[in-house]
Specification:
By secondary structure, the chain is of the alpha+beta class. The protein has 16 helices and 32 strands. The protein has three domains: about 190 residues, Phosphoenolpyruvate Carboxykinase, domain 1 (3-Layer(aba) Sandwich), CATH 3.40.449.10; about 270 residues, Phosphoenolpyruvate Carboxykinase, domain 3 (Alpha-Beta Complex), CATH 3.90.228; about 80 residues, Phosphoenolpyruvate Carboxykinase, domain 2 (Beta Complex), CATH 2.170.8.10. Helix 3 links the parallel strand 4 and strand 5. The protein is globular. About 55% of the residues are buried.
């Protein structure tokens, strides 16, 4: 049955899973276009996928309403002791969780095919890449992994007979009795959904969900939760970061890695089209970065993914024209609306159609009071199709990072941009980053939550130790460490107006950062960090009211003092494990603000 598997460990593991899950058949994925087309045609035939006549080789899926987003309260880090997972993770004893999930996995693939997906995170052959194998009973997962990773025969060849790989087991948790008709979106009830990580074994088990990162286990599960543990162990970094190349009018290149919570404009920035004359930008990655110190002592990054899994609502030719061009074909859409002419639509895309079928398969018209697309509707598209993709996006050695960006959504308090005064202060900014929640997060929309380094849902170990790892990396980098900045494109005034135009005009802020890197422009010292003088931002051609600019660059010291108790409570969660250097940074901030609390 597994004669196509030369790797001894893989063959043994597949046999074990077959015995446990009892699939009707096994398919070893070769990564070919024929395989993709065959699986997609099967899903169209049984009503799971809808072809889109307006977009070549593109399909729409509708998930079950219980299966529409990350399920953070069903995502687990399983270790022997809770302090290994830390306060930001859902901890379960590894032995107990395995016992529970083995019961669920028993016979869970009856009536289905077990697909063996060999995949590479990162360009195959890169010294920074990692190989994995996902076993799944979902053809939707197979087709999505075709886009999001490098799949198939070349990976099997790279594994050889005894190569190591990261194991990822997934099931939708919906076995079929003989003759039973399948559902359009099979999944288990929410209480039976488990997205589980066993860092000590570099092992991922997922059960019950067929959606996004819950099921595409190369993405958040491997590339962040497991990779972050491996990175700490081996001395590199696995980060929830976009990668962007900026090119000045003089042809100088600058490389930026930026961490922002989901749905905070990260994809828009990754695909930036600058409005500043002469400046160019190239996308290297929109979501995840793996970074290592190179032979020259600088930090180099690759994007381990092969595609984009982007939030659709709000994406338009105004906000992100490059993304809109990327999804013209060869794209999987999930939970978008279907128009009468065979296209997709979502809120924020443009004028609403007079009629559509919404993400739950119901008739929809403007003014109906419900969204046509789910707020977390997604597109899955090959990165190579992006019109601003960098020619170096698959460079196996990576690109040298000049700038780290942290930020989020904040309608008040946080100014447009400021720079850290040093590495430790920059780590403090990342460790205290916060954002107003959106539909891509769990919880009520609009609430402020701390999301350190945009990694709170994705760090696979105690985040206090993760903070220390950042400090340690800075010690190793020394004078060659990237500069660290904090940005907020989402500031509003009392009239609820956006103060900054955003999108392509964000290049004006990035230009100031590049000039800071080159030592061409000074900055004013403030209690929170180094900020531009109003005249140092290149606003040529931008009609920005003076009061907007003043508010964007204002440091409201009483408001910042009011933030101190929340930062203290945030740090208190980590107890004695919090690095002393971060506690010192908080004390210095209080001193600069004149806070005697």
């Amino acid at each position: 049955m597994q004669e196509g598997l030369a790797n001894n460990g893989l063959r043994q593991w597949v046999n074990e899973v077959v015995d446990l899950c009892r699939p009707d058949s096994v398919c070893i994925c070769d990564g070919s276009r024929e395989e993709y087309d065959r699986l997609m045609a099967g899903m169209v035939e049984r009503g799971m996928a809808t072809p889109l006549s307006q977009r070549a080789h593109s399909f729409l899926f509708r998930s079950d309403p219980s299966d529409v987003a990350r399920v953070e309260d069903r995502t687990f880090i399983a270790t022997d002791h809770p302090e290994q997972a830390g306060p930001t993770n859902n901890w379960v004893n590894a032995g107990e969780l395995k016992h529970t999930m083995l019961g669920l996995y028993t016979g869970c693939m009856r009536g289905r095919t077990l697909y063996v997906i060999p995949f590479s995170m990162g360009p195959l052959g890169s010294p920074m890449a990692r190989l994995g194998v996902e076993l799944t009973d979902s053809p939707y997962v197979v087709c999505s992994m075709h886009i999001m990773t490098r799949v198939g025969r070349p990976v099997l060849a790279a594994l050889g007979t005894n190569g190591n790989f990261i194991r990822a087991l997934h099931s939708v948790g919906a076995p079929l009795a003989p003759g039973e008709a399948d559902r359009a979106w099979p999944c288990a009830p929410i209480a039976e959904k488990y997205i589980s990580h066993f860092p000590a074994e570099d092992l991922i088990w997922s059960y019950g969900s067929g959606y996004g990162g819950n099921a595409l286990l190369g993405k958040k599960s491997l590339a962040l939760r497991i990779a972050s543990v491996i990175a700490k162990r081996e001395g590199w970094m696995a980060e929830h970061m976009l990668l962007l190349r900026l090119i000045s009018p003089q042809g100088k290149q600058y490389h930026v890695a930026g961490a922002f919570p989901s749905a905070s404009g990260k994809t828009n920035l990754a695909m930036l089209i600058p409005t500043l004359p002469g400046w160019q930008a190239e996308c290297l990655g929109d979501d995840i970065a793996w970074l290592r110190i190179g032979a020259d002592g600088r930090l180099y990054a690759i994007n381990p993914e092969n595609g984009f899994f982007g939030v659709a609502p709000g994406t338009s030719y105004q906000s992100n024209p490059a993304a809109m061009d990327t999804v013209r074909g060869n794209t999987i859409f999930t939970n978008c609306a279907l128009t009468d002419d065979g296209d997709v639509w979502w809120e924020g895309m443009g004028p609403a159609p007079s009629h559509a079928i919404d993400w739950q398969g119901r008739d929809w018209r403007p003014g109906s009071g419900v969204p046509a697309a789910h707020p977390n509707a997604r597109f899955t598209a090959p990165a190579a199709q992006c019109p601003v993709i960098s020619p170096d996006w698959e460079n196996p050695q990576g690109v040298p990072i000049d700038i780290f960006l942290f930020g989020g959504r904040s309608s008040t308090v946080v100014p447009l941009v400021f720079e850290s005064v040093g590495w430790d202060h920059g780590v403090f900014l990342g460790a205290t980053a916060s954002s107003e929640t959106t539909a891509a997060n769990i919880g009520a929309v609009g609430q402020l939550r701390r999301d350190p380094f945009a990694m709170q849902p994705f760090c696979g170990y105690n985040m206090a130790d993760y903070f220390q790892h950042w400090l340690d990396m800075g010690d190793r980098l020394g004078s060659k460490a990237p500069r660290i900045f904090y940005i907020n494109w989402f500031r509003k005034n009392e009239a609820d107006e956006w103060l900054w135009p955003g999108f392509g005009d964000n290049s004006r802020v990035l230009e100031w950062m590049c000039r800071r890197v080159d030592g061409e422009v000074a900055a004013r010292e403030t209690p929170i960090g180094l900020m531009p003088e109003p005249g140092d931002l290149n606003l040529t051609g931008l009609d920005l009211p003076a009061d907007h600019l003043a508010a964007l660059l204002d440091v409201d010291e009483p408001a910042w003092r009011a933030e101190i108790p929340d930062i203290e409570a945030h740090f208190a969660r980590f107890g004695a494990r919090l690095p002393r250097r971060l506690a010192d940074q908080l004390a210095r901030l209080k001193e600069r603000l004149g806070d005697s609390v």
